[in-house]
User: Which sequence fits this backbone?
């Protein structure tokens, strides 16, 4: 995967991609992408995918209106627009690869739109895309990101999200709050400690602010992590998608996370593509 840490250090201009369907949630995603681009002197690319070439002219007019409403000044990031005829299930990933995007910022319509926006749509997009995703809600405030909650599990793949979360933390001078499960079993507890030792060493090496926290194990881990995040004042959650065999479980977990009542944005990493950043 072209992770954030790699893209930030190897390209002169950082690219952020926003799939735009001319809705309010896409506008919200655009505002978040611009905020991040301001911090990294990046470029925001808006992408609209049409079903036919006949729709391109109208889409071009809408994009012109959207960019005008942004009222960007000379010190603001550059915003470019792209219109493709094809399928959202392939063209977002293709465009992200072409632009070498460090991050895809995408909006969700909330619980009522989950089946369309996250279930069938986002899973296909995430698995076809080399860049991490930042999912925002329509009413998510564009605030400074100071605390990023990153839940971990007893598997190395799910820890890969910390690589990209660490890069985001460095951009905003934020702190990573690693939420590890409390394990009563001595073997599992020892494995968690080993993971945490490696995480601490990596974050220290990269000068990433971090702290380690333990949360209760539960049949509803999403709620435990959301409660923890609410208590700690989280500005972002970071989670990993890591196995086709776990799609149903991930889908349930992720839906609860990205539609959180706090309206906090969620960073999602396709860890199976990211390689072993830590292990």
Assistant:
């Amino acid at each position: 995967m072209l992770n954030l840490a790699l893209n930030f250090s190897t390209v002169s201009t950082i690219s952020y991609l926003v799939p735009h369907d001319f809705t309010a949630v896409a506008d919200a995603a655009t505002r978040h992408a611009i905020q991040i681009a301001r911090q990294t002197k990046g470029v925001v690319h808006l992408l609209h995918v049409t079903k036919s070439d006949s729709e391109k002219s109208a889409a071009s007019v809408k994009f012109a209106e959207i960019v005008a409403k942004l009222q960007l000044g000379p010190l603001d990031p550059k915003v470019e627009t792209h219109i493709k005829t094809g399928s959202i299930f392939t063209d977002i990933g293709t465009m992200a690869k072409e632009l070498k995007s460090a991050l895809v910022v995408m909006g969700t319509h909330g619980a009522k739109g989950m089946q369309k926006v996250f279930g069938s749509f986002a899973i296909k997009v995430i698995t076809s895309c080399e860049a991490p995703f930042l999912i925002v809600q329509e009413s998510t405030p564009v605030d400074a990101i100071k605390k990023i909650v990153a839940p971990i599990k007893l598997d190395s793949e799910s820890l890969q999200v910390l690589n990209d979360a660490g890069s985001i933390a460095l951009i905003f001078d934020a702190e990573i709050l690693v939420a590890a499960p409390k394990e009563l079993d001595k073997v599992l507890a020892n494995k968690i400690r080993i993971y945490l030792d490696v995480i601490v060493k990596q974050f220290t090496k990269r000068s990433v602010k971090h702290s380690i926290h333990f949360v209760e194990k539960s049949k509803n881990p999403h709620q435990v992590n959301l409660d923890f995040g609410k208590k700690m004042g989280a500005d972002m959650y970071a989670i990993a998608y890591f196995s086709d065999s776990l799609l149903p479980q991930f889908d349930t977990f992720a839906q609860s996370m990205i539609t959180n009542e706090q309206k906090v944005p969620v960073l999602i990493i396709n860890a199976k593509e990211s390689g072993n950043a830590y292990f």
